[in-house]
Amino acid sequence: MTVDAAWLMFQAFAGIFGLLFGSFMNVCIARMPEDRSVVYPGSACPSCGTAIKPYDNVPVLAWLWLGGKCRACKASISPLYPLVEAMFGVLAVLLFRHVVRDIAYFDAPHLVAFVWYGWLCFAIVAMTFIDLRHKIIPDEFSIYSVPVGIGGAALLHGLGYELAPTWQQSVVGALAGGGLLLGVIGLGWLVYKREAMGMGDAKLLAAFGAWFGALPAIPAILIVGSVVGSLIGVSAALATRSSLKLAIPFGPFLGFGAIVWLFFGDNLVIRWAHLFG
Ligand SMILES: [Zn+2]
């Protein structure tokens, strides 16, 4: 096999990996807000409860060949399911290309880095759908992921992957990210007597700090998240002529900031360093 064909094949594997995890993500999005197990029982039709056969559970394709309907009761199945799967499949390919970059780097450190960043991307996309619908961020995708962030950083450093923070930087990042937003929440209570944002946002930023370290990632993610969030919040308020208190959750915008940082942060830091010596 030529090098190009091998590289294409690895990217295809990354995409299939993403599609399968996108399918699992649908289960998380549907069940986690109701505190149901994401493992047992297997997938079932939300309308009639019939268990979904393995061949009807193929990401994206099953929805297409079933015409978006349950095989048993013909109830329509939301296009959001194949969309989530497709979205995460594409994200997995982009992440693979970003982290591994070239077949010359197809080795243990870069594959571990791909899985480690993949965990974070999974948490961000799943959390986004749950937060938009239910205004909660499951702890699994925020504070419980912090040890994964720190452990992964330690492992990657041991493997000689230099783009990850050291475990010490990772711990400081988690404390800084969580602590900063806890401070903002405390201030909100003191000044406005209301919650400026949720505890879930603080736990989420703690996780981002564990993956990226405190500086310059935490302020960069906060700035991107706040700017995009305000733009969308103000447009939504103008469009619906409602007050800004309509409260769009902040978590998805923090998540967007983290994805931007993951894909463009290292370049920005390098350019910044060049600009200022
Ligand atoms: Zn059904």
Low-confidence stretches are none
In oligomeric terms, what are we looking at? single chain
Strand content: under 5%
Topology, number of strands? 0
Mean pLDDT metric: 92
What is the 3D form?
Answer: globular
Structural class: mainly alpha
Describe the sheet with the most strands.
Answer: none
The tally of domains stands at: 2
Please tell me how large the radius of gyration is: 20 Å
Helix content: 55-70%
Which cofactor or ligand species appear?
zinc ion
Encode the helix/strand succession as letters.
HHHHHHHHH
Helical stretch count?
9
> Could you give the distance between the termini?
44 Å
Q: Would you mind describing this structure in some detail?
A:
With 277 residues, this protein is mainly alpha-helical. It has two domains: 1-106, no CATH class; 109-277, no CATH class. Helix content is 66%, strand content 0%. Helix 1 runs parallel beside helix 4. The longest helix has 29 residues, at 3-31. It is globular. The mean pLDDT is 92. It binds zinc ion (ZN).
